[in-house]
Amino acid sequence: MFSMRAVRRSIGTVLLAGVFASPASAAPIITKTYSYFQIGGKTAEDLDKELEKRGPLTRTTGHRHPGATEIKFGGEVTYVERANRCTVGAARVTLRTHIVLPRWINRRRADADLGMIWDTLSADIKRHEERHAEIARTHARILERQLLDLSTPSSCDSLEKKVADATRDLLEAHDREQMRFDQVESKNFDERMTRLLKYRMKRD
């Protein structure tokens, strides 16, 4: 007697942020998209105020930010039941990241100094959000490998619990790493911007 069943389990959404199909050895399905919000302003102080006013509001902090990365994990796990044993037949993790970045509508009319400041700041915002997406990609790959490597218990109900536990632990580790990254970046912001501006002035 041979039977196979697929159980869909929602992994969740993260903002900054299992359902799992064959083949079993395939890499996670990862997509990345972008959108932009416009800001005005003619001085550095204006830009700062505009970013605070118009930047994306994140649920994790309850505040607006110069940029944000929405992270959605999902996927599908297939459980194969045979001879009173249950195995993971296939596991596929999906990851969707959506990066929100600022676009300054007055950039072309800005003087050289303010333009350089904006170019430096906007490049750093993009780098920061791309790193959030990279952290998520790393954890998606780790999760898929962990699910495929799970040991075979005596029942599919037991294996489903192992899948749920592994998914929860991995997503909690993902969230902690994202928070650590933000803390380090925030602490070093002023020093980093000063260094980047000096580099651009020498280069230009």
From TrEMBL:
Keywords: Hydrolase, Protease, Signal. Transmembrane segments: none annotated. GO terms for molecular function: peptidase activity. One of its GO terms (biological process) is proteolysis. Pfam families: DUF922. It comes from the Bacteria. The keyword Protease applies. Residues 1-26 form the signal peptide. The keyword Hydrolase applies. This is Putative secreted Zn-dependent protease. It comes from Rhizobium soli. The lineage of its organism: Bacteria, Pseudomonadati, Pseudomonadota, Alphaproteobacteria, Hyphomicrobiales.
